[in-house]
Amino acid sequence: MWIPTEGEGTQIQSYKHNGNIHRIWQETTVLKGSRRIIIGGNDRTMVTESDGRTWITREPAICYFHAEHWFNIIGMLREDGIYYYCNLSSPFVYDKEAIKYIDYDLDIKVYPDMTFTLLDEDEYEHHRQLMGYPDVIDHILRRNVDKLIRWIRQRKGPFAPDFVDNWYERYLTYRK
Questions:
Q1: Which is it for strands 98-110 and 9-15: parallel, antiparallel or unpaired?
Q2: Where in the chain are the domains?
Q3: Considering 23, 35, 78, 150, which one is annotated as catalytic?
Q4: Is 113 annotated as a binding residue?
Q5: Is 97 annotated as a binding residue?
Q6: What residues pair up with 146 in beta bridges, in sequence order?
Q7: CA distances to 75, 81, 171 from 175, in Å
Q8: Smallest Cα–Cα separation from 145: which of 171, 170, 120?
């Protein structure tokens, strides 16, 4: 696997279990790149949906990807605090073209007060049947929901105080 260079721009490509593209973020600046972790930042980047529709993100975001965990975490900086959107997904791969992962529908939204909501359970069950997610994937994802909830409660990783703010400051140095 390639290691992205800090300061370079790259795409983020999300796929579904059946191999179809789900969503593409056009430009994310790599803030940290290793074989295990990629941290990126973006602001007002174009996102293309699988049906070709596009939209622009509304606020700066710090993205956390790990090669061993079945989730990724997006910290969005808004006027009233940091919101997190956690995608249950395959671990990332990076191939010089993009950061890539399989989106498995389940999401956790975390609010600035660190309360959270598990989202899209119905969509997960529908796609699990439709695309034939194996039982082993279901078990891995359920364990990773529990792991994410522990991280949220313990303020671990991207949920740690100042994590998003510190990486956002680094992102701003590349924007100058």
A1: parallel
A2: 9-175
A3: 23
A4: no
A5: no
A6: none
A7: 18, 22, 7
A8: 120
pLDDT at position 1: 65
Q: Is 107 annotated as a binding residue?
A: yes
Q: Exposure of 159 by Cβ count < 10 A (0-12 exposed, 13-18 middle, 19+ buried)?
A: buried
Distances (CA, A) of 118 to 72, 86, 97, 101: 14, 9, 31, 20
- Rounded to the nearest integer, the mean pLDDT of the chain is 97
* Cβ pair 133, 127 in contact under 8 A: yes
Bridge partners (DSSP) of residue 65 are 38, 72
Residue 23 is among the residues annotated as catalytic for this protein: yes
Q: What is the mean pLDDT of residues 7-11?
A: 96
Please give the pLDDT value at position 96: 86
**135 appears as a binding residue in the annotation:** no
Q: Assign 73 to helix, strand or coil.
A: strand
User: pLDDT tens digit string along 83-142?
Assistant: 999 999 999 999 989 999 999 999 999 999 999 999 999 999 999 999 999 999 999 999
The topology under which CATH files domain 9-175 is FomD barrel-like fold (2.40.380)
